[in-house]
Amino acid sequence: MQSGWEHEAQTTSRVYLPKGPEQVVEQAKLAVQRAWQDGMRRQSLELLLPLIGATDLDDWPGGVRQQAKAAMPMVESLLRELKQAPDLQGPLRGEVIDQGDAVSAWTGDNLAAVLFPTAETLRQVREIAEARSQGLVLLVNAQWQGGQAISDFGVGPWRRRTEAFLGSFTETYSLRQFRIFGDNVRLLKAYPNDWQVWLAREDGEPECISTQATKPTYRELETLLRATEGSNSGLTWVQRLQSEFAFNKKALDR
């Protein structure tokens, strides 16, 4: 497949923990490019969004609409980079699929992206993907990853059809942030590399504490942190409570 990306994608394989939305977009772009070269036409992404009007105690008081203000510029920047490839060039049309859940789409002849897709908008997402069977289709920050179970998409034949459709998307880039027992953790996947678990210590630079071939579960992250020297998860519950109290007080004093 001739994409015009070969030199850039093959010579920029180092994985790092990005700082800021620009580096997140750059890292996601390279992951998508590599996966596209390997024949992955349907991809799912999870972008870590910069906080807008938030605090350490309440990340998104405005909900998904507030998140959209941070996510849309990142998605548009990513698409501008991707459409430089000869086989993905052409204008993109933007539209809001669901105003209440901030579900938005950008569609062109061979390139499309859907931001914050929900179970309720799966019909439109499917139509977008099937209309571009030879193009690149991206699902960005799907809302069902935030708590919806696959069973919420129905039962019987409908559920199986939905599972098959969602299974056709490969998770090629993901950067998520968790706070587990007082530890600030970031989970990073940038295709074709394995999953990386980063621990951000308050007194130093983030450290990669594990690399895994499969995506670790929340429980597995808890176990990993308990076994990591110097983590808050390895403290007693009284020590963790004191640490969380100090964190909350510091956030309120800002």
TrEMBL record:
Signal peptide: none annotated. InterPro entries: Chloroplast_ADK (IPR053021), DUF1995 (IPR018962). Pfam families: DUF1995. Residues 18-222 form the DUF1995 domain. It comes from the Eukaryota. This is DUF1995 domain-containing protein.
